[in-house]
Amino acid sequence: MENLTNRSFLKLLDFTPAEIEFLLDLAADLKEKKKKGIPHKLCEGKNVALIFEKTSTRTRCAFEVAAYDLGMHCTFLDPSASQIGKKESIADTARVLGRMYDGIEYRGFGQEIVESLAKFSGVPVWNGLTNEYHPTQILADFLTIREHFGSLKGKKLVYMGDARYNMGDSLMVGCAKMGMHFVACAPEKYFPNSTLISLCNAVAAETGATLEFITDPMEATRNADVIYTDVWVSMGEPDEIWAERIHDLSPYRVTQELMDNAGPQCRFMHCLPAFHDLGTTIGRQIQQKFGIDCMEVTDQVFEGPQSIVFDEAENRMHTIKAVMAATLAE
User: Fold this and answer.
1) Mean pLDDT value of segment 47-57
2) Of 190, 235, 294, 319, which is least packed with CB atoms within 10 Å of its CB?
3) At what angle do helices 241-249 and 281-290 cross, to 10 degrees?
4) Is 288 a catalytic residue?
């Protein structure tokens, strides 16, 4: 059994394959207990702070339900409820919260913020999303892949679209760590940065992982086990970016043709929210402006039998629970 007590969970690069596997095993065990109604208050009496500088449905709900299931109380701090980095430095905020709470979650902007919180707080800090990394999402993704395929090693995951930021980066790191076959499929300017690619290639040399960067969607998706995508424009980016992304990334939309090209074994994944129809305000605005009824994935694929996006969304809670339990439980 791996001992992760008092460790922060900031990025997957900080963890060994065995430690990641341990967290996935623990998540699977806690998920089974939850389904069977078996109490698992492993952190009873502890308190955690949830700092959200960027809003989220899944991340907030996952952390709150997981905390309650573990017997903890939590305080939610939205962008208006915290002075972090504005009237009070990150280091000072960390030292205050670390004296009141047993653990701190941060979801927001630069990775340096969550790293600073971990450095100064003296308690475990968990990354709920930064511009650079989204490690709790990757744990949920990998638990979902294990549930559907039995294992991770050697599975081919193709990430379609803008692979330069937290999701593309984190999936590449995770696949490298777990000996998987990672493909970034996008125009070249949307590939991950070369420094991180070098780091991941070094990891892959030890684990047997394969990393590829391909511009042709049909070539990239051949025999894929998972085709994964995300929204084309991230939170906080200006509206004028939409036209550029729609122009550049429309050839990388996940369609049934790509799913069929991969084969019947292939599953579709998305970290959500997804623009697959006109059921959102932004989706309708984009439709009026650009004349398209979906963006990164078609509704046929999203709602189709190969889509496992809601299994994946549920697993956010089980894997986040595992991270908190592993780092806080005595």
Assistant:
1) 94
2) 235
3) 80
4) no
